[in-house]
Amino acid sequence: MAEFKMDADHPGIAMDRGVQGVLGVGLDRSEGALKVSGTARYGYEHRVEGDVAYGYLITAPAAKGTVTGFDADAARALPGVIDVMLDDPRIPRQAAAFGPAHAGNDAIDHWDQVVGVAIAESFEAARAAAKAVVVHVEREQGQFDTMANIAHANPPPRDSRLQDVAKGDIDAAMAAAHAAGGVTIDQVYTTPNQVHAAMEPHASVAVWDGDQLTLHSSLQILAVAKPMLAKAIGITADKVRILSPYIGGGFGSKMLGPEAVLAAIAAQKIGRPVKIAMARAQLFHNIYRRTDTNQRIRLAADKDGKLLGLAHDSVVSQCPDGGFMEPVALGSLALYDAPVRQFTHKVVTLDMVMAGAVRAPGEAVGTLALETAIDEIAEALGRDPIDFRKLNEPAVDPLTGAPFSTRALVECLDQGAEAFGWAKRSPTPGQRREGEWLIGMGVAAAVRINLLVDSEARVTLKPDGRALVETDMTDIGTGTYTILAQIAGEALGLPMESIDVVLGDTDLPPGAGSGGSFGAASAGSSVALACEDVVAVLAERMDAKPEDMTLKDGHAVAGNRRVPLGDLVGAEALVGKGKISQGSNAKTFSQAAHGAQFAEVAVNVVTGETRVRRMLGVFEAGRILNAKLARSQAIGGMIWGIGYALMEDAVLDQRYGQFVNHDLGEYHIPAHADVPPLDVLFIEKIDRHANPIGVKGLGELSISGAGAAVTNAIYNACGVRARDFPLTLDKVLAGLPEI
Amino acid sequence: MKTFDYARADSPEAAVAAGGRFIAGGTNLLDLMKLQIETPEKLVDISRLDLAQVERREDGGLTIGALVPNSDLAANAHVVDGYPVLARALLAGASGQLRNKASTGGNLLQRTRCYYFYDTAMACNKRAPGSGCSAIGGYNRILAILGTSAQCIATHPSDMAVAMRALDAVIVTLKPDGDRRRISIHDFYRLPGDTPQIETDLEAGELITHIDLPPPPAGQQLYRKVRDRASYAFALVSVAGIVSVEDGKIASAALAFGGLGPMPWRDPAVEAALIGQAPSDAVFAAAADALLAEAKGFGSNDFKIPLTRRVLIASLRELTGASA
What are the residue boundaries of the Aldehyde oxidase/xanthine dehydrogenase a/b hammerhead domain, all occurrences included (chain A) (predicted)? Predict the structure, then answer.
């Protein structure tokens, strides 16, 4: 096994010496044809042997209280109903089976909480039965308003990624700025509850063979899901196999849903395979949300534009014992230089579904506030917002003093300004008008911490010269199958068609899984390391040092010999194993990906409607493994930014504690017509300190700052500042003059 | 979804005799059945009836079969030429896929998109008469500011019907007893009052077979829809406007509004404020005053009042060629 721990930079890997020329190329995703033709089988669509039964979750229409009983006789008597399960102590009652341990009791602690499952011969019959069950609840008044409960807020949980930081005195810095003729900003920005809104709902098929459970599902990180599922149903992890070949969007939500646990226990009880898909409204209320945030930002700058102080103080919400805290200030920690720095979080407990990770936890909502505040202070100083950012660019991590692994924020800003035509922007709002439309441009910085997680892979070079890449890593829809093949192809000198990649099966070596934008870096490194094993044996058989051997088009070349790889392999396949582990480089270097987001918008002077006209994202995220897939990741994130700026809002009814707009008809995300031409540029810097293949996380980076670029452009267009996100047309309208 | 009987009708007469809930495109009804907001015992499938033609009558008007898909109607040459307000309204609604499936008759009968109507855990007098109205005192961004009652503040979601109301459409029906009726669209919809569950003048088992449009009206036509995203969202407010100006004065005006009331809204006082006047912002403001005199917001939809005023004034400027 080729193992490497990132306590130091890797001295150099075979992939870097590769000459196959497949790495970085914008190849189509290998499973693309399956997906567009509808023949890729997602978890729910897996065809199992045996007589499948269908389940539908039973939920309680109350946010807080106690279940006092059920009327289920009518449901049980409906045609096609096999069972109505309400009393199994393993029924998961919180956001997910792995959430706070509320399973098996009668307490209701959030709206639409799962209390059971109906099993029937068809999906329709199961749904009818579930709806026919009357759940009796003794209701209590719940608390759903974050700021109304601020007096009872808690500090960050002990195991939270972010603890409170106070370096210097922000009040003194604000006073000093005033005294020296500088400027200050002290504003509160709010963001609402948001949901993942993946197209594919949480869905699982459970099959038992004796005491062995196989779950076909849609899960991001199998190494997390497997023990969690085993624990939830009361068996040992070695009795569980999970397959998750395709994921129709996850964004942090698909760790393990209640439907997986219920499918397993229902299948166990009735002795047949059971499949359950969650309904959209059930996802809104039973899969964790992104918390609402209340963010106070204070900035103090001297008259020359140097930041003297930066404070980012946030209030978020969580359910009782929720654990996770949205790290709102994560992106603010090291983005700008300022001698005085303060970052705090307060967590308010509400009677709501758990708050958890949604794409780019922290930065996605934190940059909406920070990058608006930066725009505000630049304007107050009379400085261009790009110049202001460059002026406050830190040389080292301003909090820890650690050097940056790689950082190209200034290059991103400069290249973006050039490519976008930033020089044409008027610094004064409301100067450019076309008919009813006011036109403006905005900019924001993007930042996302870079993560590496332990990951293993196996690469087998077969006697026929084909390679097989295996890991329980998942492809969340971003192209993991393709990039892992590209890495192996470059390292082993094989064309893409000679490589098979198998993912998403817990019987395979444990990989990183998909989340936190760490998948490509972590799983990719493990595959590259596994290839080292194979290359070492090939070199030995070529009587050459690995660095003196060239692998290309399925042949090894060393000295004056060119040998087909299959001949070198012989009768028995060569198996390479790779493992990457996180190490001290994570502390030695301040690691993050950066970018610059540009937007041009039009705001209608009659209606306050905003139409984004074009956007450009310039990103530095280490090595780019596949130009096309990287671009797809980036534009996807930028579209999230449009949604966060203009529309995404899970509206809470404060009387009952439910999300009112709990479907995709009324929880608005951008439609195609909302998405203008999006351009993406990459500044490629191979980050040797981050991991052996020099890749940094990209997907979440591209959300970061995107929303603020849009709303800063709205300000530039019409003079209306976003402080209460999303900036819907009624809020714009309130700031527009009479027509 | 509750189990139901299904019958396919091969003639309008057979459809009304079959005694069940009619289904054509099903773009709204099936959603409502899945959520058990509607639980019909029997569906009568009318989608194969021979009612999918658009015909020009001798008087110059159009007779539109109730089963003409929204997409086809929007692309029909007679509609594009003579009734652009209708073509634009149709294309402002739903999505391409839904417009391909949705029928003209069904579009008139869409149920409200009120959040609380869709949530069977919530009180709703339209869904469960007598249970109350959760929207009052709740979140009501997309709900009504005109024509509401203490029992219901739902809006009618259609774009097409707003244009049809501006066009004085007539709804032609067949009743189970074989009688035919011609119902002016102005008499077709009901205010909620104390019976918000009764939305139209249709009797039990009565089938819409056609919609008649009068000959194309004189003047300029416009459909303007304001919504929370650029596509696939219901109107916060929409305006269907048909205005002619002769000798510097407004000779005729027909203005209907979506997103404001429980039905496609049309108020004679708005048109009275305009007809005979020289176009000007003062006249347009008077028309807006007339429209909004009784407007009442319920909190999260308060913004619709100033928004409607602005959109109406801007629409009238465009229709009359008057500048700000």
Answer: 37-141
